[in-house]
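Annotated sample (chain length 161).
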Amino acid sequence: MAIYIFFRPIHSGKTTALHSWCKRQENIAGILMPDINGCRKILDLSTNDIFDIECKDADSNLPITAVGKFKFYTSAFEKANTILLQALQIKPHWLVIDEAGKLELVGKGFYPAILKAIEVYDDINSPGNLLITVRDSLVEDFIGFFKIKHYQIIHTLNNLP
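Output written by the structure step:
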């Protein structure tokens, strides 16, 4: 069906709005990155499981992926990619990825899952929809980097089918 790119400025409530929208959908899978008690988490939309992605422990011995001032557990990205790639096997009506950012534009973070999801959903005959949040300043870079052909840019979730 389609790829929808949902963007607004940073800290404008994209994830909160997306979470509310997701609760009203059927046949949905994917991940959200809510900020819970000042720390980024991953929410698996299929199971409602929540796990840490942001590392606040300066003494952590676990592998870390850094972007700007943020440090993320590399294993959390691996787990999130697995969740997304498994969801692609069942081809839900909605696959949600929150969010694509600077890491994905250098082949890290959610890159493997996004690449595969775009391959599946960037076909007008594909059943289902891909909904990706992207920081407003990265939308054009994101579309060009992943060579997306069939997409719609949205600023509100009210207009989705």
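Annotation: Residues 74-90 form the longest helix (17 residues).
Annotation: The CA atoms of residues 154 and 160 lie 9 Å apart.
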